[in-house]
């Protein structure tokens, strides 16, 4: 090995060790910084940009329900196999409005 090759290996080892030490030191600091930024940006406070989207949700929410009607209740009560008929769908549109951290829900039948 030449002297120049040994100098390169030592230089790269020193730089790698310094970067490793900096990484180990900054690991908990970086995690705390990321957590702090997420809590600031995701909080539902009136001055955050996402608050208006959270408060005035313009996405329609539809809920569908299906019911089943037993067409032979007497036979079923006597241990027979029930015959069922599907009824539905019953569709509801749910409008959600939020005001001062109180949630009001209005359900409209379609």
Description:
The protein folds into 2 domains: 1-42; 44-110, no CATH class. The radius of gyration is 32 Å and the shape is elongated. With 110 residues, it is of the alpha+beta class. It has a 3-stranded antiparallel beta sheet, with no helix packed on it. A hairpin with a 2-residue loop joins strand 2 and strand 3 (102-109). It contains 3 helices and 3 strands. The chain crosses the membrane at residues 9-30. It holds the Pfam family CD36.
Number of helices: 3
**Derived structural class:** alpha+beta
C-alpha geometry: elongated
Distance between the termini: 83 Å
Helix content: 40-55%
Count of β-strands:
3
Instruction: Return the domain count.
Output: 2
Mean pLDDT: 83
Uncertain residue ranges: none
What's the arrangement of strands in the largest beta sheet? 1-2-3
* Percent of sequence in beta strands: 25-35%
Round the Cα radius of gyration to an integer and report it: 32 Å
Largest sheet: 3 strands, antiparallel
Helix and strand run = HHEHEE
Keywords: Glycoprotein, Membrane, Transmembrane, Transmembrane helix
GO molecular function, one term: scavenger receptor activity
Pfam family, one: CD36
InterPro entries: CD36_fam
Top keywords for this entry?
110 residues; alpha+beta; 2 domains; 47% helix; elongated; CD36_fam; scavenger receptor activity; transmembrane
List strands and helices in order, with pairings:
Layout: H1 3-42, H2 49-55, E1 61-70, H3 73-77, E2 84-99, E3 102-109
Antiparallel strand pairs: 1-2, 2-3
